[in-house]
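Researcher: Here's my situation. A collaborator sent me these components and asked whether they could plausibly form a single complex. I don't have experimental data yet, so a predicted model of the whole assembly would be a useful starting point for our discussion.
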Amino acid sequence: MALSRPEVQVRPRPLRTGGPRRVGGLKLGRLLAFAALVALSLMVLYPALWMVSTSLKPDAQVFAYPPRWIPDPVMWGNYAKAWASAPFTRYAVNSLLYAVSVTFGTVLSCSLAAYGFSKLRFPGRDFLFLVMLSTMMIPGLVTMVPQYVLFSKLGWINTYLPLVVPSFFAGAFFTFLLRQYFMGVPNELLEAARMDGANELWIWGRVMLPLTTPALATVAIFTFDGAWNDYVNPLLYLNDERLYTLQVGLASFRSANDTQWQLLMAASVLVLLPVLLIFFVFQKYFIEGASLTGSVKG
Amino acid sequence: MSRASSPPLPRRQSLNGRQREALWGYLFIAPWLIGFLCFVLGPMLFSLYASFTNYDITSRFDWVGVRNYVQLLTQDSRFWKALSNTAYYAVFAVPLGIATGLLIALLLNQEVRGQRLFRTIFFLPKVLTGVAVLLLWLWVFNPQVGLINTALYRLGVNENNLPLWFSDPAWSKPALIIMSMWAAAGGFMFYLAALKGVPRDLYESAQIDGASPWRQFWAVTVPLISPVIFFKLITGISGAMQFWSESLILTKGGPSDSTLFYGLYIWQTAFTDLRMGYASAMAWILLLITLAITGLQLWFSRRWVHYEGEVR
């Protein structure tokens, strides 16, 4: 029941413009709203700007009181110093490989399953779909321990297999999301291809996927973002320092340098940059996806 | 297609087409189905069984009946501590998070200038996540030179009364809740889409009846977007019940277990103490609590959630 609403939300549809239109006190109301928004934006931006400011400070100014916003001199060298004080390049390569493989596996497997659930009829489909929906309610903490047992019995500890392999088995949430988009593709288009003798795999790859690239991009971006920022799973499964991802590497860098805030903040900015870059380039998909996934990610 | 030449049996032919379609269907959902059996259902059944044992992943795996559950509920004070910390967090973080997102959406819905810029800014907390941002919060909450205490000091709070945040058991959870509100700003998109769907004439007729903006908000806006609020409430509480990895990085559960959340206690029990059976029992209790809360919310929702069909 809780899940019936987003189904309505998920269909890509143009936003209707305009909300409540007040007749009296319109100008004053808007001015107040604008002022409130500016104040709230500052509160959102403050910590982020503080991070950049700290990352550029010389040692002595980090703990200066009152805090100064513009460092003097501006220490661009902090970035190089932070990056060099731990094997961050290696961590970055690991993170990138991890995020790219998980994204590939998720988009591939979820779009296959979503096609099956949306465009093919088979006995038990609705029941299985219901099963899939209900798995979204299961806390991840319930499967965390037994999955660890499974992967350790398989001898997969200290490899990337436990992190990557499950992504090739269509997670419920993104399958559900793609299914909602796929439902919106007219059956006539698929029927036409079937008439020409195309098999379902061809139709999936040549008709469905090209028609739903915005949805696939949303799934890809959110999966990449999730894997890039994942801390718990790499921490659980990887012991060898050479296998660390940026998140685990950053956390262990912190334990080693917990007073060198200018270096910690410089490293943090560098870790955030790729995702920030993706956000600014693909903002449309990000924001569209967020109104769909925001609910689940909290 | 090969059946086309056989005697006129259109039913049989369509059955074949249907069978072929069904076969494709099973092939397409196979990734999900296999994943469900291997990574969800199988592990869950194993975990259920393990919760009745003293499993420790290496040597012991003996049936102990309900001992784990009895011990958790009657003798384990850290279990209750973790549960109450988690409840504390959920009770404040979920409503405050909803209020933050809704407030921003309401303001943006007033057709103010600079929509695009505001949307980008308020969306940033959704993008800025992970360990880097947690370290930033550690720095922002730094008792001596952090942003928050500097601001409080300027507002006139006595130097000796400034909160120690993550170093003080009384302030560590509020710090985490403030952090979660910042992150919740990004949720505005969800409400804004719902607000755009509220028919304008309802406000007009409310104004004719002389309803104040405050009254309009409670009598028109809230009922009409209640399905979205309800959805956020369900997923928000379920998410808050599983809030813990932040405390693993920020505080390791301290000071004096004040940020020992339920998930963190499971993590420590399973992977530090290797008491897999005991941790499994905890996980199942969490599942039952989550289901019970969701069920209660569904039951209560009939009193306050309005679906479009009923209004129009």
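Model: Some features of this prediction you could bring to your collaborator: The domain at 83-297 of chain A is CATH 1.10.3720.10 (MetI-like fold). Residues 1-23, 294-298 of chain A have pLDDT under 50 and may be disordered.
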